[in-house]
Amino acid sequence: MSFLTDFRIKIAAIISVVTLLAGSIVYAQLEGGERGIAPLASTGDFEVMGVQVDIHGDNAFDARKKGWEEAQRKAWKMLYKRTNGSETEGLPDDRLNTIVSAIIIEKEQVGPRRYIATLGVMFDRARAGSILGVGGQRLRSPPLLVLPIMWSGGSPQVFENRTEWQKAWARFSSGDSAIDYVRPYGTDSESLVLTAGQANRPSRRWWRNILDQFGAADVIIPIVRLTYDYPGGPVKARFTARYGPDNRYIDSFTLKVGRSEDIPAMLDKGIARLDNIYSSALSRGVLKTDKSLIIEDPFNLDELNLENFDLDAESAVESGGVEGSAAAAANGGAEAGGEAAVTAPAATTSISLQFDTPDVGAVGRGEAAVRSVPGVTSASTSSLALGGVSVMSVTYRGDISALAQALRAKGWQVQQGAGALRISRSGQ
Length: 428
Known about the structure:
Layout: H1 3-31, E1 46-56, H2 60-84, H3 93-99, E2 100-110, E3 114-123, H4 125-132, E4 143-146, E5 149-152, E6 155-157, H5 164-171, E7 180-182, H6 190-193, H7 204-214, E8 218-228, E9 235-243, E10 248-257, H8 263-283, H9 311-319, H10 322-332, E11 348-357, H11 360-371, E12 376-383, E13 388-397, H12 400-409, E14 413-417, E15 420-424
Parallel strand pairs: 4-7, 4-8, 5-8, 11-15
Antiparallel strand pairs: 1-3, 2-3, 5-6, 8-9, 9-10, 11-13, 12-13, 14-15
Helix pairs in contact: 5-8, 9-10
């Protein structure tokens, strides 16, 4: 065997070993332990947290049962006051049992005949909302991916290790928030894709790929930076709310605790304030979905097949005059007994209508404008994308072409497709 052949064999063996080790390292990075904890399920229910009870009973089971019932009564009074700004006498226990969807145990101590606990109570939004006098539906943001970055010890972390910041986001109950949070927790390849460095990569193509994996429309970047006076001593946390692929700043604040053991409680408080900041930014139109992240399939009017539309007949029916009746009679058959034919009422059509919603106010203005069109019996937003293009479900007495003409008469620019319309104002 020649020296060259022997050398090639050794090089191939070295490459094989290196490849095997690299594969093991990547596998270990993906499978080497849990990097985070799964978040609490996010529901649309009303939540009342921090309800304290101290109840005695015949035994431990009876004390706990009475404690939960007392928590329901207290939580309902707190929710009523929060919603309506006034006190209430409460509801009977059998009625409360029908509208409470869950009890969340924050802390509890169970004794032989005593139950001390701090509980959270979740009320079904539809059932409780009818009693409170508020709607069962509410305005919420599009799904927003959470990239929680924690600075501690001079380096940023997301899912490289299990951090207190990720734990705090996982236990945050977001059901009553205006923000639809998408909270990953570092499983499989998430720890490789979602890193602190990703927050400073503005590439839209890369961000689209990431957001598509999580079913999100955009990203928010809550950051906390921990500073220790000395080990185990006072800790200061600087919280910053950022969003979008360009890592834009919204607001920031500082909290401080005297002991390291109080860091989890401080982070929980910080997330509650960040949630208020993001919710306020959403209502003010600041938290807009980046349009460069929205992939639209615009209508091409030149490719639309208009051969099947009888525009003359549509105009005659819209006019509602003698010509319309004559056209209806001609299409419907001979008149009976020489009497004038009665025009049948137009059938209702369900139409999807896309419209721009740069802020919260644009949603109500768009719905009101469409409802004012003659023939529209209902118009409500079915898919909301603040800062982007939302979808409105419209019921109309007539066909889609007639609605398009009616909207143009109201000053809208209209693009028509199969079962859908896209409307906009001049300059949009």
